[in-house]
Amino acid sequence: MTLKVVVIGCTHAGIAAVKQILKNYPDAEVTVYERQSTISYLSCATYLHIEGTVRSLDDARYVEPDDFADEGVTMQINHDVIRVNASEHTLLVQNLATKAMATDTYDKLIMATGSLTAIPAIPGVENPKVLLCKTYNQAHSLCDYSTNQKRIAIIGGGYVGIELAEGYANTGHDVLLIQQPTHLLDQYVEPDISQTVARLLKAHGVQVLRHTRVTAFTDTDEGKLCLATEAGKFKVDMAAISAGIIPQTDLLQGQVKMAANGAILTDDYMQTSNPDILAAGDAAISHDNPTNTPSYAPLVSHAVRQGTLAGINAFERRLRTIGTQNTTGVLVFDHTLARTGLTMKQAEDAHLNAAHVLYAGPYRPKFMPEHYPVMVELIYDQNNRKILGVQLLCQHDISQAANVVSALIQSGGTIDQLAMLDMLFSPNFSEPFNYLNKTAQKAVDQENGYLRT
User: Fold this and answer.
1) What is the mean pLDDT of the chain?
2) How far apart are CA 434 and CA 3, in angstroms?
3) Average pLDDT for residues 49-71, to the nearest whole number?
4) Is 287 known to be catalytic?
5) What is the pLDDT of residues 289-308, one digit of tens each?
């Protein structure tokens, strides 16, 4: 008997799941429901298109619906799943073009419904001059509308907000960046690195307001958008919202176990509390290795890995997740910011006996040209000396250093191991002791020397 799997949502997690189902279960019948007309848009391309690095937003789409249709997948684009009945294994679906309703069935269901932009409850936020930037259509609207605007406000100082600020600053726009928390990128880096990022933004003309909340959006008599904030009023031509996201899981509300924020809880095989439903991507919870707890980490890298696992495990429990360190990075005006693991606040919130060290020095010998300074924040557990996290900032590309530390955290590595880790040396690339070695050595000194082995 042919088994049928339905995938709801066809962005990164859904695409990865379909690829693995086709590979591992070639006899399965696969149906995909996607409410958008396009799939596979990488939203990080929005700012790259704004600044001209990416010619077209379409260039950031890596799969077309016809690609899967040619492999036998029933691709139901512009179809919205209205209801899931998990006990009966049925779906109620609407064709958004014709408005016709239909019922479908499944043997296995993969929820890859993703997330929505968290729109703050601010009076006037529905103003057409206030735009979102997550989906392909939203990105198109944002880029088209902002072309002829001069002064742009960005609400939110996370990765997306920083990238948008750089994109608009690089194209001659007058940029105002407003962040409610005290520090930019407060979920990702320590205050020292955050302050350096803020200085980079300001040096390139971005006005940065931290610890400031927008309280209202209103139109002015001259057709501008007025932002009322705790720091005063500001007139701009438009605003972009990048204030976080929330999981889109209402279809399974009350039918599977969920976290407090609505993300779907899964086991190590991406299976939900219902044995015939799997979940992946921004709709699902991840397993955080540094704290050994569930965590919500809506990242493309997670979506692809979780979707891959969901596809592999659709009909058989074949491959477990190895968890995550939430490794991320961003380019800020030619400076690479990379990080993995926990910040000090996150470690303290997890009730870990954490400490940290800050290292600053050239990434390669001073006799070499362009020996750019590198900042490294290392967080570790004082009880067992295990590494909990690292953050790096440098004008040189040091992004892969975060992957090195991610692998060490994955395997339970300690500051003693990182201090003496075998790393290549050439004056072109580093000093005899790499900056990661030196940072860990500083942590070892802080702990009064190496553990005897």
Assistant:
1) 95
2) 53
3) 90
4) no
5) 999 999 998 999 999 999 99
* Residues 326/300, Cβ–Cβ less than 8 Å: no
Strands 174-178 and 151-155: parallel
Concatenating the DSSP letter of every residue in 7-31 gives: EE--SHHHHHHHHHHHHH-TTSEEE
Beta strands in 124-168 (DSSP E): 130-131, 151-155
In percent, the amount of the chain with pLDDT more than 90 equals 87
Q: Are strands 174-178 and 207-209 parallel, antiparallel or unpaired?
A: parallel
**What is the rounded distance in angstroms from the CA atom of residue 11 to the CA atom of residue 4?**
20
Q: Please report where in the chains the tokens 């540094």 appear, as a residue.
A: 290
Q: Which of 391, 326, 331 is nearest to 357 (CA)?
A: 391
111 phi, psi to nearest 5 deg:
-90, 110
Secondary element (H or E) of residue 167: helix 159-169
Over the range 388-427, which residues count as b (16 or more CB within 10 Å of their CB) and which as e? bbbbbbbebebbebbebbbebbbeebbbbebbebebeeee
pLDDT at 49: 85
Who's near 243: CB < 8 A, 6+ residues apart?
117, 118, 119, 120, 155, 156, 158, 180
Among 12, 49, 79, 356, which one carries the catalytic annotation?
12
The average pLDDT across 371-396 equals 98
The DSSP 8-state label assigned to residue 389 in this structure reads: E
Catalytic residue status for 10:
no
> Among candidates 58, 98, 61, 63, which has minimal Cα distance to 78?
98
Q: Against a cut of 0.85, is the pTM above it?
A: yes
Q: Answer for the pair 151, 176: CB distance below 8 angstroms, yes or no.
A: yes
**Cβ-count burial of 307 within 10 angstroms (0-12 exposed, 13-18 middle, 19+ buried)?**
buried
